[in-house]
Structures are given as structure tokens and as C-alpha cells.
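Thread title: Can someone regenerate the structure for this chain?

I was given the following input by a collaborator and told the matching C-alpha cells would be attached. They weren't. Posting the sequence so someone can regenerate them.
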Amino acid sequence: MNTPTIYRKGAIGALTDEYEKVLTELKNLLVQIPDDNFKNVYNEKVDVDFQSVRNIVLHLINSGYLYTNHIRIRFGNKHVVPEIEIEKTEQVIVELDEMFTYTVETFEDKWLLTDDDLMNTIIKTSWSTYDLESIIEHAIVHILRHRLQIEKMIAKYAIL
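Best answer:
Regenerated them for you:
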């Protein structure tokens, strides 16, 4: 899977391009994991969200929708909270793509917001307060953090 080389406009476009890039890196990792290993619980001592690759990715998808919904709510746009079931690796690729498409649709009329617009668009969540730029950055780093967690799980439990 390759990240498209068509770049989006403006600061939000650049952040969205980076978001797509980290999602592509994650998907490239995930397609290597056999379905049985994808669902297998490797550590029951941690939060259920982090016991298997499947659960980590489900957490990422749900979080992606959550961040985007906070942005949509801030701008007064319609939002959804999908219920997602994932049993196979190929399903997760589709769900990640749908979550990203939902995010891109959120930004369709915002590509050319100014730096002032970005910094002055305040988004309050239950865990923190962000400006528009920082919540998008948070979403990107969230994927990076959990991709690393999956890489460590792969190495520790010889998943591939």
C-alpha cells in the first residue's frame, strides 16, 4: 500500500497527508499478520484495548472517529459513532480507510484555514483542550504510538 503523492492544500492538508502516511505504514504492518495471530490475546494483564493486535487497532479506529467527531461538533457538523466489528486483518484495512475518509470529509471546507484560525479553533474533550492543529497532531501521534506497541508485540510473541 502506498501513500498517494497528491498533496492536499494548506496546513490541514499537510497534517492530513501525514495522517494518511502513518495509516499507510500501519496498514502495511497489519497485512503481514495472519488472522489467527491478529485476534489472539497475548497479554491478559493489560487493559482489554491492548491485549491483542485486533483490540489495539479497534481502539485506534474508535479513537479516530472520536477525534473527528470532536472537530465536527466544534464546527456544528453532523457526526456518527459507528459500531465496528473486526474479525480479520482485511476488515481492519477497510475500517481504517473508512475512518480516514470520514476525517477527510470533515476537512473538505477547511483546507485553507489560516494559522490564526487553527490556533483559535478550540476543541474541548473529556481528557484535554486542543486547538484544531493539536488535535490532528494528537491523532497522528496516537497511531504512531500504537503502531510501535504492535511492533513490540510482534517481536515479543513472534506473531509473523
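DSSP finds six helices and two strands in the chain.
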